[in-house]
Amino acid sequence: NAGVTQTPKFQVLKTGQSMTLQCAQDMNHNSMYWYRQDPGMGLRLIYYSASEGTTDKGEVPNGYNVSRLNKREFSLRLESAAPSQTSVYFCASSEVPPGSYQPQHFGDGTRLSIL
Amino acid sequence: SQQGEEDPQALSIQEGENATMNCSYKTSINNLQWYRQNSGRGLVHLILIRSNEREKHSGRLRVTLDTSKKSSSLLITASRAADTASYFCATDRGTALIFGKGTTLSVSS
After folding, report:
1. pLDDT at A15 over 90
2. Which of A18, B25, B62, B88 could bridge to B75 as Cys pair (CB 3.0-4.6 Å)?
3. Hey, is the C-beta of B13 within 8 angstroms of any chain A C-beta?
4. Quick one: average pLDDT of A49-74?
């Protein structure tokens, strides 16, 4: 019973490199989310996918792209990494979007450092 | 932009004491949720309270919601060292949750 699985757990990149963060959930949830967490800033939504086949921008989408590969998987791509993207990235899923009184389930995060 | 703001930012108590955290938000909501985050881990959902509810209990947790003041409180009774964590409130805005910056709770034995 894995829940939400994120890979990798840690990564160091050089400025300008690209990388894809992977996320998979085994709870048959429809909605998936990517957040970033920075010290003193709480969690900020990057992108979300309300259902398979749809993606939408969140609060801080610049510099990122996403792919909802299928119902289970939602990936986040940094095309040209910048030091400002150093952060902890969390993937989450929920049965339905938040307005329908359902909690979100989180992975344990990817700690990304960009030099 | 943050919707919820927790208060205090940090709280230190002894085991057995009660811990109270507050959350204020800006716009109308359908529901408000509280999450816990242990160091180095993801967030874990604790409790959800709907906008038409005023109080909800779950084990040692008690959540209140005052929609007229746009505020909520989370009370943890008889705190344990294992309750040491950061606590976040989150409010719904359409298809997304908006999280506050969190309260860091430290419970010492």
Report:
1. yes
2. B62
3. no
4. 94
What is the pLDDT confidence band of residue B56, given thresholds at 50, 70 and 90? very high
Sheet architecture: strand order including B55-58 = B5-7, B19-24, B71-76, B61-66, B55-58
Nearest Cα neighbor of A90 from A41, A18, A28, A17 is A41
Task: Find, among A1, A58, A65, the residue nearest to A33 by Cα.
Answer: A58
* C-alpha radius of gyration, chain A, whole number: 13
- B94/A97 CB distance under 8 A: yes
> How close B15 comes to chain A (CA, Å)?
26
Tell me, what amino acid is at A18?
S
Q: Measure B14 CA to nearest chain A CA, in Å.
A: 25
Nearest to B70 by CA among B17, B11, B26, B10: B26
Say whether B43 and A50 touch across the interface (CB within 8 A): no
Length of chain A, in residues: 115
Contact (CB<8Å) A104/B44: no
The 3-state DSSP class for residue A83 equals helix
Query: What are the structure tokens assigned to B21, written together?
Result: 């955290």
Going through A1-115 in order, the beta strands assigned E by DSSP cover: 4-7, 10-13, 19-25, 31-38, 42-49, 56-57, 64-68, 74-78, 87-94, 105-106, 110-114
pLDDT digits (tens, 9 = 90+) for B60-77: 999 999 999 999 999 999
